[in-house]
Each structure stands twice: as C-alpha cells, then as structure tokens.
Design a protein that fits this description.
The complex is a heterodimer of chains A (about 290) and B (about 350).
Chain A lengths: L1 H11 L4 H33 L3 H6 L11 H8 L1 H34 L5 H10 L5 H15 L5 H25 L3 H10 L3 H12 L1 H17 L2 H5 L8 H5 L3 E2 L2 E2 L1 H21 L4 H5 L5
Antiparallel strand pairs in A: 1-2
Helix pairs in contact in A: 1-2, 2-14, 4-5, 4-14, 5-8, 5-11, 6-8, 8-11, 9-10, 11-14
Chain B lengths: L2 E10 L2 E11 L4 E5 L6 H9 L6 E6 L2 E2 L10 E4 L11 H11 L4 H14 L15 H14 L4 E5 L7 H16 L4 E6 L2 H7 L2 E6 L2 E7 H6 L4 H6 L6 E8 L2 E4 L4 E3 L7 E7 L15 E12 L3 E8 L2 E8 L9 E6 L5 E3 L5 E3 L2 H5 L1
Helix pairs in contact in B: 2-3, 2-4, 3-4
The chains are: A mainly alpha (about 290), B alpha+beta (about 350).
Amino acid sequence: MSASVARAEAVRRPAAAPAAASGAWASRLGLALYLLFLAVPIYWLVNMSLKTNFEISSGMTLWPREPTLDNYRRIFTDSSWYSGYINSLTYVALNTVISLLAALPAAYAFSRYRFLGDKHLFFWLLSNRMAPPAVFALPFFQLYSAVGLFDTPLAVALAHCVFNIPLAVWILEGFMSGVPREIDETAAIDGYSFPHFFMKIFMPLIAGGVGVAGFFCFMFSWVELLLARTLTTVDAKPIAATMTRTVSAAGMDWGLLAAAGTLTIIPGAVVIWFVRNHIARGFALGRV
Amino acid sequence: MSLMLEDIALSAGGRVLLHPVTLSLEAGSLNVLLGPTLAGKTTLLRLMAGLDRPSGGRLLVDGRDMTGVGARQRSVAMVYQQFINYPSLTVFENIASPLRVAKLPRAEVEARVHQAAELLHLAPYLGRRPLELSGGQQQRTAIARALVKRAALVLMDEPLANLDYKLREELREELPRLFAESGSILVYATTDPAEALMLGGQVATLWEGRLTQFGPAGAVFRRPCDILTARVFSDPPLNEAPARLAGRELVLANGRRIPALQRGVEGECTIGVRAHELVLDDQPGPDAVPLDATVRVAEVTGSESYIHLDVGGLAWVVLVPGVRRPEPGERITVWLDPRRLFLFGTDGTLLATPELAEAA
C-alpha cells in the first residue's frame, strides 16, 4: 500500500520528480524487507520440513543440504498422522456447512424484518464470540459425553458453531442488506415463491458473502484447538492435537512436525484464494 | 378488471401513514397519483400491490375481496423509481422472469420478450446484464418486465424521476400507449403536476396521507376541491394570501379591494393564484388590482422567467414569458386579476374558481 501511496505522491508532484523517485525506491525497499520478514517463519517451516532431524539439530543451514521427503512420506502413510487431517477436515467442513445453513435464514430475517428485540438479539449473537472457548469446554464435554457425541467430528463441528454462526450471521446480514429490498418485492410480484426467489435471484447476489462467511467459518474452525482437543480422544483427534504429541522417548521429531505444519497451512491458503476479491468486505462484516 | 379500494388505511407504530382512501379504478384506465414526497403515494401503491397489508378497509378486485392476498397471488406488476432489475440475470431473462415463473411455453416467452424489447428499444441489449446498461435502458428493462406479464394492474412509482429529461419526455409519451392496449389499470405516481397533466387520465391528489380529490386531470387542475389539492396541483407553488369577503368585495390584507365573484359569503378566506396567472407589466383586465412587491430572486430558464417576490411579507412566484432579470430588491408591480383567482374558505374548501379557467 505504501508503494501505491508513494506512486500517487509522485503523480501529484511532478516537479519534485527526483525526490519522489528516491522516495518510491525507499518505500519499495521497505516493502521488500517487510515481506521478507513476514515470509521468514514460513520459509523456515518449509525448510525444516525438507531436512532430516540430524541436519536440523546439528546447526543452522539456510536451505536443506540433503533434501528429503521422508517427513511427508511418514505423514501420508502413518494413519495416526493422516487421520488427524481427515478428522480436522471433516469437522471443519461439517461446521462450515452447518454454520452457513443456520446463518442464511437468520441473516435474512435480521436484514429484512423488524421484530421484538431484533437489535438486542443481533448484538447478543456477536457477544458470543467474545467469550473465551474455555468457558464452553466444560459444558460441551459433559453434554456430549451424556448424549454419546463425545469423540466424534460432529461434536467439534457443533461446538464451533457457537463462534461461527454469529460471525456468519453478521457477515451475511451485511451482504444481504446491500441488496435492495425492492428486488425481493419485484420477485414476489413476478410470482416467485420464496425458496425459488432465494435460490435463483438472491443467492447469486450474496454469493461473495456466502464465500467469505464460509471462509471465516473454515478458518476459525481450522485453527481452534482447545475445544477440538477437549471433545475428542482417539477417533476424531484433530491434526493440531496430534502435532502437540510428537515428543517421544527419542526426543522431538522436528522435521516431522515441520512437515505437518506446512500441510496445515495449505487448506487455508487454498480457501483464501477463492474469496480473495471479497475478503476485505468480509473483514468489515459485509458492511461497505 | 376493476379495482375498488374501500376505506383502505394504514398506520404503523401509532403513526397514520394513510388515512382511509376510497377509490374505484376501471379497466384500461390511466390513473395518476399526484402529491409531494411523503404524501403517501408509495404507501398507496404498495397496498394496491399487496406488498403491505392495510390496517383497515377492503380491497376488491372485480368485486372479490382480495385484502389479505399477497402480491404473489395477484395479477400485478410494479416499476420502482430506482432501477430495480435482477443483476445476475441477462436483460432477456429479466424481462422473461414473470413468464418463466408462470411456466409459459418457451416459444410464447420468446415472442413476448422480443416484442416488448422491440417496443422499448432494448432488442440489441438482450444478452447484456442490467448493470452494463445506461440508467434509461435499465428502467426500460423494468418497464418491459411489467409489460410482458400483461398484469391486470400495473403500478409505477415515479418511474421517470431518475431519468434525464429527454428520456423522460420520450417515455412519458410512450408509456400510456404501451399499456393502453393491454387493458391494464395503470397507476402512475408522480410529484410533478405537469407530468400528471401531460399523461392525462384520472388524477388522485394526495396530501400528508390523505386523498384530497379524484377525477379527470384537467378538471381537478381547473377546479381543485380544496386548497390542499390546489397546492399539490400547482408548480411553481400556489400563491396564497389571506383576505376577507365583505358583500360583493374582497378585501386584501393591505386594504386593496377587488370585486368578488362569489356572492352571499361573508368573512375570512384565502385567495390562491397560480404563478402563470399573475401579470407584471400591463393591467390585464379592467378589474385587476396592482400590488406592490419586492423582487427576491429571478430564475431564467431560457424561454420563461420565474420571479420570486415578496408581496407584503408573503412569498409569491410569478411566471412570465421571455427573459426577464429584475435585480433583487427592485420594486415591482404585480397585477392580480379577479377572474384568475381561487377563493378558499377558512377550512380550505373551494368557494370560487377562476372565471377564465372555467371557460378554458
């Protein structure tokens, strides 16, 4: 951004061209350094994941001297590792779908109708996000044990709804309120039934919002550790929990841990690619 | 189809948005709802469409009570002031949408859409999306959608207000013709008295949620039943002044006397005269009286001049032909002709209409 600002400055003051040019240079350098520092931890993670444990612990090397894919091979062949990914992806996907299905009608109601206490309810929804997850861990643990949901992906998916449904409602409400109410009315006058209108006319108009809401649900569910670990033991153990248990009698398996970390970044990066054009509006909860 | 409103009223949150309205609209008629903003035009249209439920009264279609029936089940089409289309569909699909929902045969849909597109000069743009069109084309798309449906009731809420004047003139001419053939009841809301007169048909004047008069446009313009209707139907605003009827004379606040046309009424009243009925230079008739005025500002449109005056503390406007630019503060004489006066009682009801208007 600072580069574009510098460019705008240069346009505005053509007389001071040399000074502006050197300013642009400095800002470009600053930007490059900023990017470098941001990328260092990620590079180091990928770097480590391609090294052997011996190389990692024997000294600092800027790139792998003996590149190896052994760490990745172990993750993809050892079921205690790859099932962690499967478990995580299962409850994250479940959670995203449940959150969106619940949030769409709720957001529509908040956006289009006035009802008793609507504003308070709307704010209360968001306040759920402000409570630390630990508050909910105990009641969920007890409840799920009682009804037999404990240690299933569905348990984690439902638990994460506490944070994700309110967020999805807020984001979708913002996007929906950007669609003129007259479009709903025109569709009613044209004779569309409500479900038909919602799917054919309305959904394409808020598709960006659905994508962004889905992305946020995915992200928060993917990185949440406390509830996911509390509500699972073996059968639905998430990858993040698996990663915290790599300390063995033989010491820390650094390379394996780094490979697991690298693989953990990938789903988020893939999802963010799809919503990159709408993400800024998503951070403003859909409000323009 | 005939549409009958019986004491249709709407109030929300303790506020009355629409006082009971009784109206009867005939098939094939053109009806204009005329009133300033917030007069209740849109409220009335929405009640007619079935988008809102009236809090009182009945709505009859061909004698059948349809009060509680929603817009989906009614034969109605609506065009908004904002250009409302489905942004994700092409212009063709936008126009075809009511027909698709009604599950008409494909050939019939194609034929009707192409016919409407032809009439509204949209044929070259059928493959585009609404947001790739100009404002006028977007509004024509919305009008085409209302047209293809062949609804019994077509509602237009200031459809031309957001268009540039050229398009406005063009569409204003075409619209009544387009819908007249279909036999629909056309209801057209506008704030512009000139537009109401140009469209012709019936006019219903609205003021602060009240229907003040309903009748043929020309008749309502010439004989408004009360001062509210006269205000609604005057642009520039109606020039008003308090006066007193005494015998056969009208005494103005400044003591000037005018021969009164209305006989047998005594007491306080209000005179009203439209801007174009006032004269600046020469005495227009033997009974005309001069009034002293101060110029506040003059607006020249090119062929006409609107001169805003201060007449004994009252803000008046005079419309004179040609270009005329008096300086602000200049003293000027304005002639008031008794043959061009409206006379309203203290309760606002019409006591006398201008002689010249009656003749017209």
